[in-house]
Amino acid sequence: MDIRLFEYALEIYKTKSFTKAASHLHIAQPSLSKQISKLEQELGVRLFDRKPGTVEATSDGLCFIQQAEKILQMREDLRRELLERKEGIRGELKIGSTAITGGHLLPPLFKIYKEHYPEVSIQLIEESTEQLIDLTAKGLIDLSILSLPIEDARLHTKAMLTEPLYLVLPKEEKPWMSEKVKQVIHSPEQLEQTTLSIEHVADCPFILLKKGYGFRHTVLELCARGRFKPLVAYETSNIETAQSFVKHGLGVTIVPEMVIHQSPQQQAFSYIQLTSHPTRTLVFTYSKERYLGMKAKALMDIYEKHHQSSISFTEH
């Protein structure tokens, strides 16, 4: 069976049209129809139902498409692996990360990587956690850096680091603050020794990341353990924007430790430890069913080698 037939069937399934599929494949439409008809005769089943204006896969067709995708993936993975064995570590590496992590963790890591592998072109893809999980599972991203939990069975994870979370408060007293929070605000000299229970901000307005971001889930879980649902005042896709809202007295937020170390406005907030000592764990994430290339493995190896050394990936 010619492997091109797998490509033909998959393109028809994606476009739901013989005409569009033929155009994308750069072959004549009658030729494509003839090839699929021969394939159906060879298999003894009908793969597609031709309907006015559309084409839909039959139940047998869906089974064929699922296996065809795997076979084509295996072919591509084999091609990539053999090319790497021949040419070494070079080409393009696609790394996924959310902005909250990528902006703080990746620059020093990429710097070291480029020193070792100058012929590798790194493409950084910043999206929401939800989007990154799907792109990584499909093999469209080589490696993503995400926080646990990762509940997609298509993915492998490898632990990177665990860091504490902090409550971020404005420097000045606001009407929405509880008495306990006001006491903390008025004792700046004791901030490093002060801890607050998450319940003390249960009635405060919260600034959260938008839906689809894993860190939003982390904060909501933290509030749930404190037996309250946060009053969401504003939502953003950027942790620095969330902190700016706090700076102007519009609410509170939660940030991971790495944000504190690199925040350009560090003196504009009060960072408070929480009594429950919450944390988040970052992991390398990659597809179980796709070939993990030498370029991606090299990045993980560099991180592991330097993580415990004098080079820090979370602070300058």
Written overview of the protein:
- With 316 residues, the protein is α/β, with parallel strands linked by helices.
- It has three domains: 4-85, Arc Repressor Mutant, subunit A, CATH 1.10.10; 88-161 and 282-307, D-Maltodextrin-Binding Protein, domain 2 (3-Layer(aba) Sandwich), CATH 3.40.190.10; 162-280, Periplasmic binding protein-like II (D-Maltodextrin-Binding Protein, domain 2, 3-Layer(aba) Sandwich).
- It is built from eleven helices and twelve strands.
- Strands 3, 4, 5, 6, 7, 10, 11 and 12 form an eight-stranded mixed β-sheet that branches. The chain has a two-stranded antiparallel ribbon with strand order 1-2.
- Helix 5 (99-116) links the parallel strand 3 and strand 4 (120-126).
- It is elongated, with a radius of gyration of 25 Å.
- The chain starts with a helix and ends in a 9-residue tail after the last helix.
- Keywords: DNA-binding, Transcription, Transcription regulation.
- InterPro entries: LysR_HTH_N, LysR_subst-bd, WH-like_DNA-bd_sf, WH_DNA-bd_sf.
- It holds the Pfam family LysR_substrate.
- This is Transcriptional regulator, LysR family.
